[in-house]
Structures are given as structure tokens and as C-alpha cells.
Design brief:
Shape of chain A: globular
Oligomer: heterodimer
CATH architecture of chain B: Orthogonal Bundle
CATH architecture of the largest domain in chain A: 3-Layer(aba) Sandwich
Strand content of chain A: 15-25%
CATH superfamily of the largest domain in chain A: P-loop containing nucleotide triphosphate hydrolases
CATH topology of chain B: ABC transporter involved in vitamin B12 uptake, BtuC
GO molecular function (chain B): transmembrane transporter activity
Largest sheet of chain B: 2 strands, antiparallel
Number of domains of chain B: 1
CATH class of the largest domain in chain A: Alpha Beta
Number of strands of chain B: 2
Keywords (chain B): Cell membrane, Membrane, Transmembrane, Transmembrane helix
Membrane topology (chain B): Multi-pass membrane protein
Structural class of chain B: mainly alpha
Radius of gyration of chain A: 24 Å
Protein name (chain B): Sugar ABC transporter permease
Strand order of the largest sheet of chain B: 1-2
Largest sheet of chain A: 7 strands, mixed
InterPro entries (chain B): ABC_transp_permease
Amino acid sequence: MNTHNSVSRLELVNITKQYPGCLANDNISITLMPGEIHALLGENGAGKSTLVKSIYGVVSPDKGDIIWDGREVSIKSPSIARDLGIGMVFQHFSLFETLTVCQNIELCLSKTQLVNIGDLASRITQLSEEYGLNVNPSRYVHSLSIGERQRVEIMRCLVQSVKLLILDEPTSVLTPQEVAGLFVVLRTLSNEGCSILFISHKLHEVTEICDKATILRGGKVVDTCVPNEETPASIAKMMVGDLAEQDAGYAKKEGTESVLCVSSLSLEPKQPFGTALKDITFDLKSGEILGIAGVAGNGQDELMAIISGEDERNIKSTLSLSKQDIGHLHAGERRKLGMAYVPEERLGRGAVPEMSLSENTLLTHSEGFIRNGLVDWQSIKDYTTTMIAKYKVKCHGEFSEAKSLSGGNLQKFIMGREIGQNPKVLICAHPTWGVDVGAALAIHQALLELRDQGAAILLISEDIDELFLLADRMSAICDGHLSPVVKTESTNIDQIGQWMAGTFIDNKSVSISNTTPAQKANS
Amino acid sequence: MIRIQARTEPSSLMKVASPLLAITLTLIFGCILFSAIGKSPTQALHVLLIAPLADSYNIGEMFVKMGPLLLCAVGLSLCYRANMWNIGAEGQLLAGALGGSAVALYFIDSESSFALPMTLLAGIISGMLWAAMPTFLKLKYNSNLILTTIMFNYIALYLLIWAVHGPLRDPEGFGFPESALFSDNTLLPVLFESSRIHLGIVFALISGVIGWFILSKTHLGFQIRVFGADEPAARYAGFSGKKLSWLVMLFAGALAGLAGVSETTGPIGQLVPNVSPGYGYSAIIVAYLGRLHPLGAILAAVFMAVLYMGGDLAQIEMGIPVAVVSMFQGVLLFFLLACDFFINNRLAFTNQATN
């Protein structure tokens, strides 16, 4: 890293952005040297996205200056940003699936850039070898895995000889092995003088790769640090203030009797691009947390929908709850038998955006609140108020609309609502996705408490660290196949990571088509 | 510079003010229009809006028109709350009129005290049947409810016209396309002497209260609201979308059918080709003007009924074409939807361009 005697690559001076009802950025100043890998940390809503969008010209700040290579610039649009040499990889990719890699990259280049490059395909191949990106320019994007697509996005920036690369939560969609590969690429770029601004929630990644970190809270810079001199715990403390408790080292437990049994469940996808479930068998015991790891789109949604009953197809005799067949029951009836469910989407599925928290309590928790078909609104309001207090949901009151809550607070509310029904079985999808550290801790503890009360919890998550932290037994899902289930103590990240990539499938089944699981998962 | 800015939360003031603002804008538009065709705007507005409430006869007629509007609008409010875009209240009303009239004619010489209840029941069932067919097509074949309900409106209309020209025509009616006059035994009782206000308005007001009760007090109403506001959440909670769709559609069909049979057994007293001056369509506007709230629909139905009355009076007294009523309704809906935009958005005034 070469930070001495050189002009800073990017300097932000007192950037301020006011949104209606929220000061997203409050006098933020950051300096980035050439070749520096700089982490931008903060809880949800701390203002990270707004800040990088200001740099990339998507958002125009109300106040403040942006100084690029020593001179002041005004970045009014992403194309100006790209001309300066700023590239950004968004959390949600912006690629056309029906076009090839080469065509996708061509789309975002200006005419002069195209003339300068000459043969784009060979340039891509050349860069691909140089950085070990392994991107084939003639492949169609729909046949690429998530990791490969991300590399196409990075390639798109490289082709434009990028000097600053902004990555918004780049590792949240990758397997551990793919993350390692990404870091190699980032280090190569950094050594060549490209600055990198890295937004992440995963603190151990930040300590591993970043040279410097800026921590935002409530739109302000609260701290800066050198991550490899810190521990994830100490950084977490800076992010949430002094409130963060230690969130590690929970005791593992062994389940007692089987509550939810899934046997030889095979199911064609309902949607044309869904994943078929293939011969899935497992049982979930009371008093344990069973974790299922996997990269998004490998059949998790389909599995949860069929277990919860949202997928209304009748699969009698492959699904049983406390030895009773439930395959033919609809979601409401399964809930009555003691099943609860925390879905991945909070707003729009787990909660109705325009309804109050009380009404959202009634959404799934109706027992005791309905008499002769009439709703006892007063009891619901009282109950909701106590629940808000118990789970420390930040809101104005039980009358607050669900959409007015932040993601983490809404998740705490939904967890509280589902746990409050004393479920025998809780299915929980990505419980802390996009949730800040403080809320994640509260959610973890709520889950463990429920387990200790004897409930069976099925935890589906893309966050492998979370699974190791919470799960008593673990498994992975890839292309609709479920790996063997093992005790968490007797496995490691490496093995689960390989299972996430589908290495267990070959021994288990022979009927795999010639596409790799990862490719299919993303079609 | 004026910019449009999303509000952080919906304005509760605008939710109430929007219909009033829309009515005001519609009246301003009316003034401009009347001036343009050389009529005095003040006189026109007086005839349209004040005269209908000026004497007891007119007020009575206003209630007569309000009945079917309100019955249809309450049913539609529930449908729209559940995201079921039923545009078929007109057809369901006509089906109710046709079915009810057939039974009323069957009882034409009967003294049975069951005659009127049976007639009303036939109207209700016919309306439900007319709502059931598009519902079935939607749920089974995923057909577009808006299109099928509109088509069913025309089918009902031509079926009714065929009936009054054929099987239900009065044999002693000199070939006019009308049924025989119903016997007193199958006519709805008149509430006040010397007016035409009949039992239909009571049905309508009761339906408004029932609709309100269902939506705000029952678990069923809650499920309807969730289903309409957020279908994935309803599925997640385990509410049966099919059941709710059937319920709201049959409820709306029953009310519209009751509106139809109440017209033929009420003020009209026989089956004629023009049973409805488009009540089923106007009820859509009533439902929206009432904020899809059954009690709000009562106020909106009063306004719409006044407008119907005023249209008739304006034609008689000022020679203004009766089409002005339809135009007023259309403009009103237009302004209402435009004003509703400001529930979730607002205008922001800035001194200079910021970009």
C-alpha cells in the first residue's frame, strides 16, 4: 500500500444529505488513499448507502465537497462517476440475463471507451487472466452463478480502468470459498493502486482485508480505526455504542424427540425458475436448532413454503408434525397445531406495511383474541404494547404502521409475535439478514431461549457464522438436495462450505444434469 | 421550483380532505363548463345541488335513488378492499331485477305472505349467481375479473331486454316491452304516505352498517383487509384467498341483486328495460368517494343521488342535457384519483433548481 507522499484518491468533505424526516448523512468527511481498502461500517440506516450513492452520482448531496485526485468535482450522474474512474458493484446486480457477458459490459461503455478498447472480448479474457476472475465473455449471464455474476460486475468496472471500486455488501451472496476468491482479486487491485470502498456487515471480513475503517452511526462518523488492530467485537462496540454484549459461545444442546419429520420430499417447482426439491429427508427434534446453510436460490424458499403450507400442494405422508400427517393441511391449520414461521421478507409478507402493529399481531396470532368471530381489539392492543416493550421494538406505539419501523425493529416484532404463540416448531428464515448488531443479538437470544423451552427450531440462513453460532445440528442445501445432517461440533466451515457448493450430491444421487448445481440455482 | 416529494407517512388530513377537494374542483369545472355553453353557472349549480333538497318530494326522490346506489357501493367497497375489481354491480343489479321479477310475476295472483320475501330472495340469489360466474372464472382460470364482470353486465342487460320482449312481456300490454304490473302483494311497502320512499332505503342503510361491522369488528373483515392490502401476507398467515374472494363477491352480488329487485318491486312496480340509469357504475364512484368505507359510502351515496336528481331537474328547468350527470360523475372520479395522489405525496417548493 502506498499512502505516503501522494495525493489522496478521494476526499469527502462535510457531505450532508437530508431526506424527508431523516438526516441520512451529517457532515461526513472521509479520505481514501490510492490502493487503500477502506471499510464503511454501520448499522442499517446509518447512512452508508446514501454516502456511496453520493460518490457514484446517484444521489446529490445537499452540502459538502467531493475532491477527486486533488481537485474538486461535482458528480451529477453515474456516467460522470464512471468517466472519472469510479466503479460500483451494487448489492443487487444489474445484469441482463438474456445477454452475454461481453454484451452486458459493452452496454455500459461509451463510444470513445469502446474505440479505445478495440476488441472487447479479448480485453475481457486478458483482464480475466490477469486478475484470476475467470470470466468467459461469451457466456450468457443466466447460466452464471451468483459469484460469477459478481465477477462480471467487477469486470465491468475493470474494463473502464477503474481507480475506485465501491462494493456494497459483496460477500452476502457468496459461499466461503467464493469469498476467499473475491478477496484475492481485491488485494491484486489494491496492489495496483486501485482504491476500494467496502461496505459489509461481516466484521471478521473487515478485519481480514481492510486497511482502514470508518464507522457511521445515525448519519455521522463516530469513529475510524485500523481493522487489523481491532477484533470484530471491538468494532461491533463502535458500531452500536457501548450497548453491545458479547454474542458468542452459546452452549449447544441435544434435541429430545422428533417433532417435525420430512421424509423423501420431492417436489417440482411452482414457478418456472424455481428449484425442484429432490428427495429431502430430515427430522427436527424438540429442544434443538437445526441450521440449514446454502446460497440463496437453492431451494430454501420452496422448502419453507411447503413446510409452512403456503405452497398449497398436497404432499400427504411426507410431512408430519408430532406423528400427525400435515401435508394436506393449509397454513392456518398448521399454525393451529403449533407451527410458527418467520419469513425472509418482513415487509409485505411477515407484516402488512400499511397496518398497525396491533393489526399485524392479529395477522398470525389470533388465538385468544377472537370470540364468536369478533375481534377483541382492546386485548390485542394491550398484548402488542407489552410485546413491544419486551422485545424493545423501537416505534411510537402499537398504532405505528409496520412500514414505519426499521428492518431490525420490524424483525424483532415479528420474532416476538411468532415466539409469543409458544410454538412447538418455529421455522425461521434469515432472521438477522440486514439487521444491526444490537438487534441481531436480541434475536439470537430470543431464539436460544425458545429452544431452551423445548421448541424445535429450523433455522435457514445464508450467514454461515450465525449458523455455527446458533445451530445444534447443521446441514446444507444445494440445488434442491439436502446434505447429511451433522452435529455442529463435529463439522467446520470448510465442510459446510463445500456442501453449499454441492459436493455431497455426486455420492448421493446420480441424476444430475450436465449443468453444475450452482449454475442451475441461479437460472 | 415545485417538486413532487413522497411523504414519509400518508397524510390522514388528505385522506378526508381529498374527496371534499375533488368535489370542489368538480364544481369549479362545472361552472366553467356551464359558462361555456351559455348557462348561468350559479343557477345551474343551484338546480343541480340545492334544488334536489329543497322540498320534501325531492328529498323523497333523493332517497329513492340513494337506495340502489348505496346497496351496490357497500358490496363494492368490500370487494375493492379485498382487491377484487368487481365492475359488475350493474349486471348483478339487472340480474336481480330480472330474477326477482320472474318470481313476482309468478305470484301475480297469489295472496301468499311468502310472495314478497320469495321475490326478494330470488333477486338476491340472481345477483349472487351473476357475481359467481366471473368469480369462478377468475379463481379457476385466472381470467381478468374487470373484463369478465363488464362483459357480464352486457349479458345481463340483453337477457333482461330479451325477457321483457319475450317470456315476461305483459300479454295485455299492447306489445310494449314491459312486464305486467306486479300485484300489491309483491310490492315493497312505502315508508311515508305521499312519497315513493320504500323499504329499499332501509335495506341499504342496514347493509352499510353490516358492511362496516364486518370490516372493522370481525376477524373475517380483518382477513378481507389483509388479503386486499397484501396478498403474500394473507397467504403467509394462512387466510384462504379463495374463500375470501367468494365471500366478498357473493356479498356484493347479493346486495346488487337486492338493489335490482327493490327497484322493480319498489318505485317501478314492473319490469321495464331501463331499470337502472347506471346505478351499478355510479356505485363504483360512490365506493371510492366513501373511501371504501361502508359508512363513508352512505354520505357519498347522498351526494351522488343529489347529482342524479339535479341532472333531471337541470334538464327540465334549464334545458341542460342529462348527459351532464355522467360527465360530472366522470370528472369527479378523475379529480378524486388525482387528489388521492397527495395522500402519499406532497408538493415541495424550493427556491432554486437543485440538480
